[in-house]
Amino acid sequence: MSGQEDASDTLLRRVSEAKTQLAVTRAQRGVVTAACNYCRVKKVKCDAQRPCSTCVKRNLDCHYETTGSETHSQASKRKHDELSRSHDTHAQLFQLLATCPGTTAADIYQRIRAGDRPGDIVAQFTQPHDGRAPTTPVQRAVRQLFLTTLAHGTGSLFDMVRLAMWALDPTLNIQLPDFPDLLLFRNRVAHIHRVEAILLRSSGLTTPLSALSTSPVAQRADSGFVTDSSDCVSRENRAVHQVPASPWLAITDNDEAVTHLVSLFLAWINPSWRFVEQDLFLQGMRSRALESPFCSPLLVNSICAIACLHSEHDIAFVGGDRDRVTRGQHFRNQALRLWSLEQSGTTLTKIQALCILSLDSNYRAMDKQGLGLIPIAIQLNNELPFHSSSAWCVRRGVSEQDYVRARLAAHWCAICTHIIMRLAFMNDMTARPIESDVPKIHKVFQDDVDLWIAYPLSIDAVPHRSTLYLRERCTLAGIFKDIHTLIFADKHKKTNVREFLDGVDRLSSRMNNWFERLPFELQYEWPMCVAIWELHASYLSTGMTLRLVARNRCLQEAEEVEQQPSSPDESDAADAMQRTAHDGLTRALALAYKAAQMLRDFRERYGLKITPAWLLQLQAVAASVLVLDKDLKVHPISTPDEHVAASHSPIANSHTAFDEVFRCLLGTAVEVMIARAIARMIYHTALEQKIILSRSSRAMLQIMAETAWRPSDLSLLNSAFPDFTTVSGDEESDASRGLGELLSKWEKTDV
């Protein structure tokens, strides 16, 4: 009996030891709580790696239903809970649509179309409201227009945030201005002190805020300011250039509206790019002759499309929601349709229209299409002769001299547009313009003094030597071309970093010499035409870009050296590259401070309703430089008095510069899709760099949340705008850090 008990005990002991050994073995090899979808379906072993070894061997996408250490049952429960919450939210939204008034239902529908999340919509329309929350579509529209007016205005970041928070504070008895009062700022500069005055008047208050920090330039009296909203429309009727709509446009026959758009284009866009010769284009448009060599339906529709992006006229908006970023889309679609019908033959107006449509595409964050139009314009430019026969000119009622002038202007427009855009978007050139038998500028153009009027924001006439400007701009474009060649030809020639840096120094010296010898008529000194703003902004933007590329090349070289077997010489070489990279960033920061000062000057004088292309590029590059400064990782706490003092002082530190650039970028984002996307990219880059935004910047992001970015905006992007913080001239690596790719990644990860 005892023998049987001993055998039984031995058996039990062995079973226990076997179980213990099995548990130890399992613990050693790791317990896989959940397999990937492929291994589960095929019933094969999965090592739970992400991706697992089985999927890697079979070159398959490896997907898991689980997250982290979840089991399949836990994942199923989580998915069930998520679906239940989503179902409840959509049921609430459906119930809300079924029971709310028609006006509210229409507002909810617009929110759905804008891409707002169902939960956010339900929360806004069902949560209890205090007396200050906008509960009706009209109240929300007034609030939105008020904030948009502030963003467009001349106020600094600190002034704008303080006025907005004061106006929207539920504990104060502040009444927002109504639509007629806010329409006083239509197509005019929204001076911050004027916005405050209207806000005080609507609230029945007489005591103003504490002194705003606006500079004397922004505080100057607006003698043309009106108190009747009907006069705002009459300002549009006082356009500089009267032109007919027919027979050029099929969308509208409103001469007043087209006159407004053409005058705006000739005031703010054409002086910098010289798409058309103003007098010849107006002559052709007013002739109503479709055979005119200086005007065509394609050209006029292109002009109206890009002008709409800077206009608040009713003709600019598509549909009834008055979405600012889609303005002019109807003219753009018509221009593209006409272009598709006019493929055969080469004309002057086709070259001009394609250059305009390319710039228009960039504004709309569709630059991949825009960059494809410019090579076509270059090809047409190469095919079109500079001279036409006397008989051809006589049949069309133009002189040979006028045609050569318009033709040469289009030639340089296409070349400068091609170079500037390829450098701005860091793309290699795919077309080569002709360089022989090109007439000299001084032999074709007269050195006249033109008058520039900042329509519709001002009636003051500013003298401008347009031929002198054209000559200097073409000279600068030649330097830009050499910079582009250095950046992109370097990878083909396998030039070492030292030789590349020598080239950077040579080209920087050339740019500085060009800048120092600029004639006094083209100096950065008020009063000046918008073209001179563009000239100086291009100089700063390209200078910063060149230094950023040099910095990033040095960092790449230092990283490659550090990965090699260590030796004292290689360690010294890596340290030298790091120091050179830091020096490049320091020089770029000095230019960024000047860029921020220029942005402040423009904002205080004109506001941000009209945003020329150079303004966008300057904001994007300067923000990319500033966000790399480690000083921004610790943000000083400033008092209101210090903010006021800083607004009167030259910008000399990264904190003040970044606040100014970011304020202008968010203000421009109300108007232009590409600025909206760039602001989003800079914000996420700041998070990656662990930058601490100032209190005012964070407050502005909250205030402008409805206009700064919407999830649906991602579907409108077709952009390859580069991330200048990492750009190096390597198209493959730069493309992986492009605007569209970065935003898609951040949206997917819900950053």
Automatic annotation (TrEMBL):
Q: Which GO terms describe its biological process?
A: DNA-templated transcription
Name of the molecule in the record = Zn(2)-C6 fungal-type domain-containing protein
One GO MF term, please? zinc ion binding
Q: Which CDD domains match?
A: fungal_TF_MHR, GAL4
Q: Which domain of life is it from?
A: Eukaryota
Q: Does the keyword NAD apply?
A: no
Domain Zn(2)-C6 fungal-type, chain residue ranges per copy: 35-64
Q: Specify whether Cell membrane is a keyword of the entry.
A: no
One Pfam family, short name: Fungal_trans
Instruction: Kindly state which keywords UniProt assigns to this record, in alphabetical order.
Output: Metal-binding, Nucleus
